[in-house]
Model the fold of this input.
Amino acid sequence: MQITFRYPSIPPVDVPDGNVLGEFRPKQAPASPPAETLVQRALGAPIGGPPLRALVRPGQKVLILTDDFTRPTPVAALLPPVLAELQEAGVRQGDIKILTAPGTHRRMSDQELARKLGASVLHSYEVWQHHWREEQQLVRIGVTTGGVPIVVDRRLLDANLVVGLGHVVPHRVLGFSGGAKIVEPGVAGSASSTKEIHWLAAQVPGHDILGIADNPIRREVDQIGRHAGLRFIVNAVQGTDGKVLAVFAGDPVIAHRRGTETSRQVYGVDMPALADIVITDSYPADIDYWQAAKAVYASELAVRQGGVVIVVTPCPEGVSKEHTALLQYGVRPVAEIRRAVEQGEIQDIIGAAILALTAWVVKEHATGIMVSPGIPPDDRRKIGFTPAGTPQEALDQAFRLVGKDARVAVLKHGGEILPLVAGQAAPEYEAVARAMGEPV
Done:
C-alpha cells in the first residue's frame, strides 16, 4: 500500500499490505450551506444564553477575539454576520475592535492578517495583535479556584462585551480547542496563567486529556474566560477539507460543549487495536514543531507501549522561534524536565511543558522518528526524534526496531485527529488534581 503525503517535497512510502492495520482520517464536511449562512443560523438560535444583540447596547464597546494564522478557522467568513448583528443592535462601527488571540505564537504579517480577517474588515476596523511578551499590556485580574493566576491583555477590561471566534478540534492541553481558549492562552500572559495551564497538562499522559471535553484544566480555563469578560462565542467545526459543517454560538461553556460533541464525531477515528508503528503527517499544523507536535500527541493514543511513531512534517519555520528552550534543553524523560523546572534550569515554563508533552510520547511511551525538511537532523535529535531522510527510510528503521510483522497505522490530518481505540482505560486526573491542590 502506497501512502502519499500532501507535502510536495516529501516522497511517498510503501507499507506492505500484510502489515497495514489501517489508514485513518477525520471526516470531510458533507454538502452544507455557506459558512456565513451557518453563522447567521447559529446567531439566531444561541445555545445556553441570550442572543448576541441582547448583550450589548448603543454606545457600549465590543472587543472581538479571533484566533491566528496557525488555525484554519475561516474568520473572514465568520466575522461579517457577527459584525452585522452588533451593528443591528446599535453598536457603532468605531466601538468595535478586533484583537488577535495567538497565545504564544508569533505576530502575523499584514498579508496573513488580511487573509485571516478579510481585507475589508482589516481596513474598516481597528485591529490589534496581542503578544504574550508585551508585559505592559498584561494585567492580573484574579485567581481561579484551582489557584491559577489570571493574567490577560488589559484591553479586555476596556470592553463592555467580549466575543470569541474560533474552531473546535481535539487539543492536548485542554481536551478540545475553542470556547474560552480564545482567552487563555489566546490573550493571556506567560508570567502566570498560560505557563500554569500548560504545565498542569504536562503532568499527565495524553489519553487523560486529549479529546476529553470536560476535564480539570478545561474547567480552569472556563473560569478564566468568564472572569475576563468573555460572554459569547462563535465556534466552527470544519471537515478535513476546511469547509464549515456546523457553527455553535452562545454561552462560552454550554455552546462550546455542544461543539465538542460534533467535533468528536468529525475528528474521532475508530481503530481496532493499538499499532506497533504509527505513521502520521501533521497537517494542518505544519508551520513549526510547536504546531506539528499536535500530531505527536495524537499518536500516543494510537501506538502501543514500546512502539514507534513516525512524524512526517515540513516545518518551514523550524522548531520554534518563540520558545528557544526546546532546543536549548531538549526533550528528556518527564522526571528530568520536572526537576529542571523545579531547580530553575528551565525558565520558559511553557516551553518546558511542550518538552514534557513530547516526552510522554517519545521517551515514556514509544520511539520517535521524524522526516522534516525544515528541521535539521541535529535539531530533530534534540527534540527526541531519530532523523530520517524519507518516510521509507523511517519505516525501514521502525521495522528493525519492532519487527517485520509489525502492525502499521497511518494517521492522516494528524494535527487534529483523535484516535479512539476500543478498550482503553478511562481518564484519571489524580496528577492534575494534586498539582492544582484539589482533593483526589
Q: What stands out?
A: The radius of gyration is 21 Å. The domain at 2-25+273-421 is CATH 3.90.226.30 (2-enoyl-CoA Hydratase; Chain A, domain 1).
